Amino acid sequence: MRSVVSYVNRGGRMTVGQQRAWEDLWPSLGRTVGELPEGTVDFGDWFGRQAPVMVEIGSGMGETTSRLAAAAPELSYLAVEVYEPGLGQLMLRAEKLAVKNLRLMHGDAVVLLTSHVEPGSLSGVRLFFPDPWPKKRHHKRRIVQPAFVSLVASRLAPGGTFHMATDWENYAEQMMEVCSAEPLLRNRHADEPGGWAPRPEWRPVTKFENRADVEGRISHDLIFERV
């Protein structure tokens, strides 16, 4: 087990609806990282089709994840999250939108990618507004570190993308530095000012992004591609 992880195992009671989602929807939509058998996940079998697999790490309460999956039915969309009420809420949102191309994984994304995802198999990985761990002494807990970026890059198919977004300036700079140093990745928007990607119109505005705007922080998108 890793001694330093990027998340906190938060508690929190589930609503009646979230509990119902876990009881009724989780058996068909979800799996738990710690309970997976040895070896890689057969995404084609799980989704019931062969399609490009997109992994979103940290889906939170699912307000954007459900919409992103609904807007891209051509993708097999996998949301990875450690917060059980968030997964419950995501299932409710997906049910309301009649999303069919979404699956959920409860647990540590690093363990999932390391032990259960075949190298070169993903069309993309998304990491939107991860915990910024703003205090300097906590920066080691940020998920975007060289080893993590190397892991993500190894799981991407050639041309696959690693798309990040954050509203913390020094975290954005760290993401840019670490990803630029990874030999398997290239910045798709290296010619843009600062190397930042233009904000995609298709990415819904999150509550974190709204809060950042109110507090005067600028959000940055970064999109790197597997060479």
From TrEMBL:
Entries under PROSITE patterns matching the protein: SAM_MT_TRMB (PS51625)
Class of the enzyme per the UniProt entry, highest EC level: transferase
InterPro entries tied to this protein: SAM-dependent_MTases_sf (IPR029063), tRNA_(Gua-N-7)_MeTrfase_Trmb (IPR003358), tRNA_methyltr_TrmB_bact (IPR055361)
Annotated positions binding S-adenosyl-L-methionine: 56, 81, 108, 131
Keywords: Methyltransferase, S-adenosyl-L-methionine, Transferase, tRNA processing
Keyword Ligase: no
NCBIfam families attached to this UniProt entry: tRNA (guanosine(46)-N7)-methyltransferase TrmB
Protein name per UniProt: tRNA (guanine-N(7)-)-methyltransferase
Lineage: Bacteria, Bacillati, Actinomycetota, Actinomycetes, Pseudonocardiales
